């Protein structure tokens, strides 16, 4: 059984930083593309940062480029999202997801597909 469990969310002031973790079990984390998504209240899901199965082609949504960094630790079977210079508009529930047939980070982040493998999410609130 594939499980993804996020941690690391919380309340942070504008300009602050957070590091999210996504622990994966039941499948090697490098089997398919894997990424971070967010959904703010009343808004559509956004693919924030997605990691391809190879070391090329990591995708970032335009509004987070230069501020967020996705990384993958194959030994720990975990994916991270380092978030710096956070802004109020980054406030959302963040979750990680992966699924069969996705090998490109760009395709994973851009799809509207309802993932079979996703975590429950962690709340990130950016506010003074």
What do you see in this structure?
5% of the residues lie in helices and 44% in strands. The model has no long low-confidence stretch (mean pLDDT 95). By secondary structure, it is mainly β.
What structural keywords apply?
mainly beta, 7-stranded mixed sheet, 4-stranded antiparallel sheet, 1 helix, 11 strands
Short description:
The chain is mostly beta strands and 128 residues long. 5% of the residues lie in helices and 44% in strands. It is built from one helix and eleven strands, in the order βββββββββαββ.
Topology, please?
Blueprint: E1 3-7, E2 10-12, E3 18-25, E4 34-39, E5 46-51, E6 59-60, E7 68-73, E8 78-83, E9 92-98, H1 105-110, E10 117-118, E11 122-126
Parallel strand pairs: 2-11
Antiparallel strand pairs: 1-3, 3-8, 4-5, 4-9, 5-6, 7-8, 9-10, 9-11
> What class, by secondary structure content?
mainly beta
Low-confidence stretches: none
Topology, number of strands: 11
The description of the largest β-sheet is: 7 strands, mixed
The N- and C-terminal alpha carbons lie at a distance of 40 Å
Radius of gyration, Cα only, in angstroms? 13 Å
Number of helices: 1
**Helix share bin:** under 10%
């Amino acid at each position: 059984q594939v499980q993804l469990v996020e941690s690391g969310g919380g309340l942070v002031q504008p300009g602050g930083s957070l590091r999210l973790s996504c622990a994966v079990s039941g499948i090697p984390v490098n089997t398919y593309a894997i990424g971070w998504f967010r959904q703010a209240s009343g808004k559509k899901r956004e693919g924030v940062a997605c990691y391809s199965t190879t070391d090329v082609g990591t995708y970032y949504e335009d509004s987070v480029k230069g501020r967020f960094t996705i990384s993958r630790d194959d030994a720990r079977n975990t994916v991270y999202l380092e978030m710096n210079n956070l802004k109020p508009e980054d406030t959302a529930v963040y979750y990680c997801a992966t699924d069969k047939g996705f090998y490109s980070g760009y395709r994973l982040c851009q799809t509207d597909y309802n993932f079979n493998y996703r975590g429950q999410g962690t709340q990130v609130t950016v506010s003074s």
